[in-house]
Structures are given as structure tokens and as C-alpha cells.
What does this fold into?
Amino acid sequence: MSDRPAVLELFPDGTRLADDGGLVVGGCRLTDVAGEFGTPTFCVDEAALRRQARRFADGLESRRPGSHVAFASKSFPCTAVYRLMAEEGLAIDVAGAGELVMALAAGVDPATIVLHGNAKTDDELRRAVVAGVGTIVVDGFDDIRRLDAMLTRRQNVLLRVIPGVDARTQAAISTGHLGSKFGLSLADAGAAVERLRATEHLNLLGLHLHVGSQILQTGPFTEAIEAVAGLGTFAVYDVGGGLGVRYTYDEHPPTVEEYLDALTDAARSHLPDDAQLWIEPGRSLVAQSTVTLYRVVTVKAGTPVFVAVDGGIADNFEASTYMGQRFEATLVERVGGGSPVELVGRQCESGDLFASDVPLRDARPGDLLAVPMTGAYSHTLANNYNGALRPPVVFCSEGTARAVVRRDTYDDLLARDL
It folds into this structure.
């Protein structure tokens, strides 16, 4: 039996222990990263992130040639990450003008960008049209009318439909159920298809759907494909993303390969043989690439023991509020094992909790602590609660650490004041 600590299964592929037992990610000792960039810091294993991108792209291409992987950039909208995904051959999914601006700043070919949104403003649509965005997802009849009116050329679009599928995930991140704010019901989709085909400037490529996020079974994805197959024959079926990841020891989501097998098998059974299958992974693409580093600030003995770090809601909103998602953790220089503690943040909310019963080995103030699986939505949802300074994003590769997003400064907190 291996004596490798179980918590390392949640860290980026390739994470190892140095001879003295300290954690090494992307070839960089995490103590050195924290020493140079401070804490909290989002530490990204660049090579692991590239491998995961290729795993999706190559895996889908080998199963259904001519298909298409787009990075759901809302999960980690950082210019350096946009650039990395484009370098690995992925298209880019953006939800709003801000993400579009960042993708373009990263040098992403606008023809490979897919624009989403249930309430796209006229400004966002114009920006997409002027930039030459390749595909715009039409969310309803208002989108059809407004987009067709502002165009002077043909624009490729997808029609978002609600498959009416229970994603078996948390309500806040379920999107494919009846009553969802996204897209049109199957009953209304037929009329929208006719309307699109009658427009002057909109070229309907096919359908788009999404059933939710952090989904831990393949069933909802295959049910959704079957549900929309009856709407007709199209060149493209974009089935979105939503594959869950393993945040904790007791979660066992499908592997990327099992997920792709399920999608392509369902496509083979229900969709035209020559139709392109598009997918939009986000969380499952980026989550495991990143570790957040913190310093332990206080330890309060008692029942329970509280270990408080120098971050919290401001840099991991999911743990506290958005999903109530548990995160595991370990001390960087005493990895794995230990006694259970309440791991909490420094923001002024009782709900500022990373997790209960986290085993840590004799945590003391000043210790460096690492929380894995933070590549998805941590940077995205980072905020200035209690005047917190949003953390830097640091890429680690072959032993070299470089900041790609700097830490906020106190001047930044005042920069927009008039």
C-alpha cells in the first residue's frame, strides 16, 4: 500500500513531496511561491492545465472527428488562461462583454469565440458583431429580433433550448430544467427555428443546451441529447459543459473519458451521423489545476478547534455562500493526516467556512496551508469583502513561478471613487 497522502489525489497531476516533505506544484516549492508572492495566492500548475485541455480536445476528436471543444471561460476568466486555451486549440465560450474583451486581449481568434447570455445587451451584441465573433447563442425571440436588426452580414447562431432534464445537482447551478431562465422550452423551440430560418442575416447552425454544473453522473447529459434530438436535423449540437470534479474524498465523478464516451455514444444513437458535437467544459477543465495558498493566522483550542487563515469568502466564494461546497486542505510542510479542525476564513460571516473536520497536523500560526481544486470560480468570484485584496494568479511551470495577475493594492480599492 502506498504511503502517499490521500489529499494529494486532489492536487494537480504531477504534484509531489520534496525530500523534506514539503509540497511541490509545477516544479515549484509552495513555500517559495508564498515567500515571493504572499498569501492568499492562486497557484496554477500550467503544464497540468495544458494536459487537461489536450485530454478534452484529443479525447473528443478521437471519438467523434470534426467536433469542437470550447473553454467555458466564466470558470477562470484570466487573460493568461484564455491565451493558454487558444494555444492548445480550444475555442472560447464567453458570457458577456467583459469576458469577450479579455479573450480578445489574449489574442484569441474571434472566429473561435461563442457568445452566451440570457440577457445580452445591445452593446454586447454590437461588440460581438464588430469583433467578428464566430457564433452567437440566441437565447430567445428578443435576441433574434435585435441581432437580425443590427447586422449587415450573415452571422452564425445557435438556438439555446431547455431539454427539461434534472441535472441532479444544486438548484443554483441547475440550468436544463423546465422553468430555467436560460433558453426556450422544447415547445417554443420549433417556432424559434422557423423564425431564425426566415431572418435576413442569421444563419442557424444548430442547437445549444446546458443542464447544469458539478454533475456527478453521465445520465443527465445523455438524457438531454435524447430530449433535443426530436427538434430536427442540424449541423451542430452544442451540449454545453457541466461535468463535475472531485472536491472531496467521497465524490467520484465520471472521468473525462467516461464523460466523452457517454456523450458520443448518445450522439451516435440520437443525432445525425454527420452532425458536429460541441462541448463547453469549464470546471472539469480548470478546477484541479490550481491550489490556493494561505497563512494560518490564529488557532483557537477547544471543541471544536478553529484554524483561521488569511482568506475566505473574498477568495473562495463557493465554499461559503455560492454552493456550500466542501474543500479539503493540508499544511504545506506537514502534508496529510492530523486531527480534525474547523477551517475558517477571516471575513465577518459565520458562514465563512472552508470545511468542518478537516484533518491538519498540529496547525500553528504562521503555517502555510494549501487548498486544492480551486481553479474553477475562485478567481472569477474573488471580491473585496471587508476590504480584502484580491489574490494574484501565479503560473508554475518547470520550477519557475510567474505572476499573470497581480494582487490588488489598497490604492485599487480607492481607484473608482470620485
Notes: The mean pLDDT is 94.
